[in-house]
Amino acid sequence: MIPVLLAMPGNERMADALAAGMGAERGHFEIRHFPDGESYVRIESEVVGREVVIVCSLDRPDEKLVPLLLLSGAARENGATGVGLVAPYLAYMRQDRRFKPGEVTSVKLVAKWIGAQFDWLVTVDPHLHRIKNLAEVYAIPSCVVPAAGAIAEWIRDNVRQPLLVGPDEESLQWVADVAGRINVPHVVLTKTRRGDRDVSVSVRQVERWRGHTPVLVDDIVSTARTMIETVRGVLECGLANPVCIAVHAVFAPGALEELREAGAAQVVSSDAVEHLTNAISLAEPLTGAVSGILGARRVTPLAGARHYEKEVDIPAAAGALFDHVDDHARLAGHMEESSALMMGGRMTYQFDAAQGRAPGSVIRVAGRVLGLELSVEEVVTVREVPRRKTWQTRGATRLLVIGAYRMGFEIDAVGRDASKLRVFIDYTPAAGLMGRIAGILLTPLYARWCVRRMAEDARRRFVDQRRQA
Q1: Are 419 and 437 in contact (CB under 8 A)?
Q2: Scanning 6, 185, 344, 423, which has the fewest C-beta atoms within 10 Å of its C-beta?
């Protein structure tokens, strides 16, 4: 059945765009307050037997959370098969530990509230500190949509000779990611402190960048203090007035005016949070993420599956490693080579428009082994950059020694240029007599071979790259 999208107040434009992109129905509900301040919620659209998607960016969260949770409860009580949350901005991410006695770890508490009422979550670039990924605090499936691609496209189309500028070394990976997508230069500011109040800012080879337009990018702009200081640093270096871009425009009162007064030539933001500076649409990547999750929810879980995994150390940053293994054709390149375990056969891959790089993307695999026509369809179910990705067979599988399977990888950063890669498979033997016979020996052998090749091929690639550097 067609999903129903419900927009919390202030999220109508994003919900309209998502509904149009997904071919979903824009649902309706009533929300008001009793004289004592309690919230009243009533769903007016038919939701029985349907997936419900609630769109609510959680800036200024305290006034939104109770009505949001009530709306989710109303959807469930009125027969929805599932309720998901699209929160482009996810609040309460900063308090991820107790800094003083008596404090609450609010990120965990709010995650429990949301996890109790929703089946899944889609968000944009959450502000992670000591938490590596959302799965550490959110028990429900989650998908993080990166804004870097949309930001890079906007810079390419709107800024003359852009120079991406990071405020410090910690911003290097983020700045390099955006710059690399459109092949433009990037730098980070260097601070030299001579005393408590004597700090100078510099850019290496500053003369080289005189004709460029500095572009500052930050994930959250609230008080704008970091960006204001970076603007001043850029001007102190003798560069042009910069363009300032925010993923999440959570501007405190007066912050936008202060940023402009500091010397920003232009201030723009994504529409993750509705604001007058919005110029970069995230509707397309969000639509893909939501469609993928809903598609994955229709995938039949594997019952009685066996498991195998392989972990290797990779001499590469998590982002670079993810970019490599996210290329499905490259990751499974061993399947296109003739080998003993393939009994001389080989498989070929066909991709949809998403190229296996979005939840819901479909990958078709076909080939011949021992004269038999083999085929299977895979669907990407989870893709969280740069941490993890999972894909799974859907429908009937026509394979010789293995049946349905779920594969994936997880990446843990252990240093600036070092990561751990874990590749895994959950699998069942092929159906029929051949499957039962193969399941004793060939199926486990084949599963281990696939996982080991994926992990070792990735390790070898980066080891060779480092040797050649």
Answers
A1: no
A2: 344
Q: Which of 64, 100, 132, 191 is catalytic?
A: 191
Structure letter (DSSP) for residue 301: P
| Residue appearing with tokens 């509900």 | 29
Point out which residues pair with 123 in neighbouring strands.
87, 144
Phi, psi of 283 (to 5 degrees): -60, -40
**Neighbouring residues of 237: CB distance < 8 A, sequence distance ≥ 6:** 189, 201, 202, 203, 206
Q: State which H helix or E strand residue 27 sits in.
A: none
pTM: 0.72
CA 31 vs. chain centroid, Å, equals 31
Each domain of the chain, given as residue ranges in start order, spans 4-145, 148-280, 299-468
- Cα angle 51, 52, 54 (rounded to 5 degrees) comes to 150
- For 459, the enclosing helix (H) or strand (E) is helix 442-468
389 as an active site residue: the answer is no
Strands 266-270 and 243-249: parallel
CATH number for 299-468: choose from 2.40.128.110, 3.30.870.10, 3.30.530.20, 3.30.1780.10.
Answer: 3.30.530.20
Q: pLDDT tens, position by position, for the chain (469 residues)?
A: 899 999 999 999 999 999 999 899 999 999 999 999 999 999 999 999 999 999 999 999 999 999 999 999 999 999 999 999 999 999 998 777 788 888 888 889 999 999 999 999 999 989 877 777 787 888 888 888 889 999 999 999 999 999 999 877 767 777 888 998 899 999 887 755 555 444 455 566 677 888 899 999 988 899 998 889 889 988 988 899 999 999 999 999 999 999 999 999 999 999 999 999 999 999 999 998 898 888 777 766 677 788 899 999 999 988 889 999 999 888 887 777 776 666 667 888 998 877 888 777 889 999 887 778 889 999 888 887 788 899 999 888 888 778 899 999 999 988 878 999 999 999 988 776 665 665 667 888 889 999 999 999 999 999 999 998 7
